[in-house]
């Protein structure tokens, strides 16, 4: 299995990533003051996505993880995509009282 | 975890690396199920937000983004401390391991403290779906309009804003439950560390798999912050504890 042998990344890299994600927290709060209206959701989700990618890649040690780990992560995202796609196409195409 | 009394390697694994990989993969598989678990409520939120965008923005505007931001930083810092705990376990540094685990627990408890304060402030402002939502807020001699009256003034449906708050309480409540489980797990790790369980450095992987769960809980919070708190417009007047 192509797994990392347990060699740990440096502490400096952890602190750097921490500061990056913390900066994104401030950005996220700042965006909420910017009055972007409905399109703020794209900025919010982009920021949350970036934070999650940094957290996953560095803190969760996806960097240097084996192919099987990446396959499981990919499978999870794929199933999540199915969940969103099938549920939303169902509900959002129904002309029910919610409208 | 290990059935081998003389060492760390369990009898049903060929080598240590296989044992450690198995532990990590098992936790990743569990996290996939957790993603789908949270995914359900996120999809429901998405559908309703697409249907009632103004109401959801109006509801979000009432949330305390200062406490939300502080909680984000607390949880992020706890992710850092648990990662440093893995580092310590890997290097066989027992005192550092215990310190970082304790720091993680304290940061998590601080998060829950701020959350409790936030829920109390939401109660004071009558931001609870149901009868309270329509009740004016009495502050001594003055009376503030109820959230339902604010909705009428802003020309949004009070019913739909209450729906937003149902999502807010359910989603943050689900997150709090996951935090409690996480605190339990990390506390258990601390007790194990106290008993010298992590003296063999190979056992760092059990701190790592717990950290994977904890980072996932942190990830969920980033999305809760984005969808619940940051959706609506906020003002500096709201930045209070």
- CATH fold topology of chain B: Four Helix Bundle (Hemerythrin (Met), subunit A)
Q: What percent strand of chain B? A: under 5%
Binned strand content of chain A: under 5%
Provide a count of the helices of chain B. 7
Biggest sheet overview of chain A: none
Domain count of chain B: 1
β-strand number of chain B: 2
Helicity level of chain A: 55-70%
Radius of gyration of chain B: 22 Å
Q: Rg of chain A, please?
A: 18 Å
**End-to-end gap of chain A:** 52 Å
Indicate the CATH architecture of chain B: Up-down Bundle
Strand and helix order of chain B: HHHHEEHHH
Assigned CATH superfamily of chain B: Cytochrome c oxidase, subunit III, four-helix bundle
Indicate the mean pLDDT of chain A.
Answer: 89
The total number of structural domains of chain A is: 2
What would a concise description of this structure say?
The complex is a heterodimer of chains A (99) and B (241). Chain A is mainly alpha-helical and 99 residues long.
Task: Write up what this structure looks like.
The complex is a heterodimer of chains A (99) and B (241). Chain A is 69% helix and 0% strand. Chain A has 99 residues and is mainly alpha-helical. Chain A folds into 2 domains: 1-65; 66-99. Chain A is flat and about 55 Å long. The model of chain A has no long low-confidence stretch (mean pLDDT 89). Chain B is mainly α and 241 residues long. Chain B has a single domain (22-236), classed as Four Helix Bundle (Hemerythrin (Met), subunit A) (Up-down Bundle), CATH 1.20.120. Chain B is built from 7 helices and 2 strands, in the order ααααββααα. In chain B, α3 (65-90) runs antiparallel to α7. Chain B is elongated and about 70 Å long. Classes of the chains: A mainly alpha (99), B mainly alpha (241). At the A-B interface, α1, α2 and α3 of A face α1, α3 and α7 of B.
């Amino acid at each position: 299995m192509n797994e990392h042998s347990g060699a740990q990344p440096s502490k400096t890299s952890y602190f750097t990533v921490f500061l990056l994600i913390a900066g994104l927290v401030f950005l996220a709060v700042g965006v909420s003051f910017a009055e972007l209206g409905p399109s703020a959701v794209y900025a919010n989700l982009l920021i949350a996505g970036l934070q999650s990618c940094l957290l996953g890649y560095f803190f969760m040690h996806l960097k240097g993880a084996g192919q099987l780990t990446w396959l499981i992560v990919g499978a999870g995202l794929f199933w999540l995509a199915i969940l969103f796609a099938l549920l939303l196409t169902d509900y959002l195409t129904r002309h029910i009282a919610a409208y | 975890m290990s059935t081998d009394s003389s060492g760390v390697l369990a009898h049903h694994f060929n080598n240590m690396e296989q044992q450690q990989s198995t532990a990590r993969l098992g936790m990743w598989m569990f996290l996939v199920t957790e993603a789908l678990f949270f995914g359900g409520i996120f999809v429901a939120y998405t559908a309703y937000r697409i249907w009632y965008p103004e109401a959801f923005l109006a509801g979000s505007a009432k949330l305390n983004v200062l406490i939300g931001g502080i909680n984000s930083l607390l949880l992020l810092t706890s992710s850092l401390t648990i990662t440093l705990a893995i580092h310590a376990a890997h290097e066989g540094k027992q005192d550092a391991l215990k310190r970082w685990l304790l720091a993680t627990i304290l940061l998590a408890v601080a998060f829950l403290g701020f959350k409790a304060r936030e829920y109390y402030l939401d109660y004071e402002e009558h931001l609870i779906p149901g009868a309270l939502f329509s009740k004016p807020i009495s502050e001594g001699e003055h009376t503030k309009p109820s959230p339902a009256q604010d909705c009428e003034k802003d020309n949004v449906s009070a019913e739909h804003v209450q729906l937003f708050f149902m999502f807010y309480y359910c989603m943050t409540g689900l997150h709090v439950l996951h935090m409690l489980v996480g605190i339990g797990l990390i506390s258990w790790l601390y007790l194990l560390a106290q008993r010298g369980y992590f003296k063999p450095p190979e056992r760092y992987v059990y701190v790592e798999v717990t950290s994977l769960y904890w980072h996932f809980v942190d990830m969920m919070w980033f999305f809760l912050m984005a969808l619940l708190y940051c959706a609506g417009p906020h003002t500096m007047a709201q930045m209070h504890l």
